[in-house]
Amino acid sequence: MLDSCLDPAMASEITLQPVRRHDTDAAIFFSDIVIPLKLAGVDVDIVPGIGPVLGSPIRTAADVAALPELTDEALEPIRQAVALTVAELGSTPLIGFAGAPFTLAAYMVEGKPSRDHLGPRTMMHSDPETWGALTRWAADASGKFLRAQLEAGASAAQLFDSWAGSLGLADYQAHVAPASGRALEFVRGLGAPLIHFGTGTSELLVAMRDVGVDVVGVDYRLPLDEANRRLGGTVPLQGNIDPALLTAPWEVLEAHVLDVLKAGSAAPGHVVNLGHGVPPDTDPTVLTRIVELVHSVEP
User: Fold this and answer.
1) From CA 2, how far away is CA 45, in angstroms rounded?
2) H helix runs in the chain, sequence order
3) How many CB atoms lie within 10 A of CB 69?
4) Distance between terminal CA atoms of the chain?
5) CA nearest to 103, candidates 33, 208, 28, 31
6) Taking a C-beta distance cutoff of 8 angstroms, is the pair 182, 136 a contact?
7) 51 in helix, strand or coil?
């Protein structure tokens, strides 16, 4: 996985394949949340059946102080992959991708994937100075990673917070939102639309918008018309077809997609997408049919 992400030709080809196969209206850059860590020199690997695993978790002020800086030179494979991809896409836009600082920091503290993220949630209260330093490091890594993609030709940028749903609103606002805003400062002046997405974040949507983004992603748990109500009709939404329904009978999935489109029409704009990733056992022809369905009913 990491080798594929860091091989420009391979990353570009993987990015392009869904566009060729399904005729989507945009591509999203193929990468992984921990790639900025790898490029910075942090000892991290993606272990089959587990996910990202660090050689040594980051749990003390000394651990944070010893973290290597992500240099501009280290990002060259990312720039090359994006440039190759944009050249092939032509007029089809490419969406850049990076993990949000909380998700990066959560992996770094736990040392591996976690169900409840007790380690980072404890650190932000018991040692807020170390937590702040760690999330600032993660924000800089994410921000540089996104900026490299936009400078190489990506048309938009998405900050993806996989684990923010483990937090309450007060903790998110106090201990996470400032770092997400810091990451986005690296790309705010580049003129590209900025998207903020998290899973399990129905109660955080307003705070996620308020870090300063143009589009808010909504996972499958909350109808888009309700998300739009909570956000006061202020921003376009991205989402939120339930991945669990991709293996349901077509008539069930079709009705669900049409419901999502109807709910999304309440917002100022709607980027139709899944409410999380594609399960590995999904029949790709189903994805093609969804794209065809959406295209057939677009105004």
Assistant:
1) 7
2) 2-6, 8-22, 35-40, 61-65, 76-89, 101-110, 118-126, 128-151, 169-175, 177-185, 205-209, 224-230, 250-264, 284-297
3) 12
4) 39
5) 33
6) yes
7) strand
For residue 6, what are its two tokens?
Answer: 């860091």
How many angstroms separate the most distant Cα atoms in the chain?
A: 56
User: Which residues have C-beta within 8 Å of that of residue 115, sequence separation ≥ 6?
Assistant: none
Contact 200, 161 (CB under 8 A): no
| CATH architecture entry for 2-217 | Alpha-Beta Barrel (3.20)
pLDDT digits (tens, 9 = 90+) for 138-172: 999 999 999 999 999 999 999 999 999 999 999 99
Does residue 208 sit in helix, strand or coil?
A: helix
- Segments of the chain assigned to CATH 3.20.20.210: 2-217
Is pTM beyond 0.85? Reply is yes
**Model confidence pLDDT, tens digit, residues 244-289:** 999 999 999 999 999 999 999 999 999 999 999 999 999 999 999 9
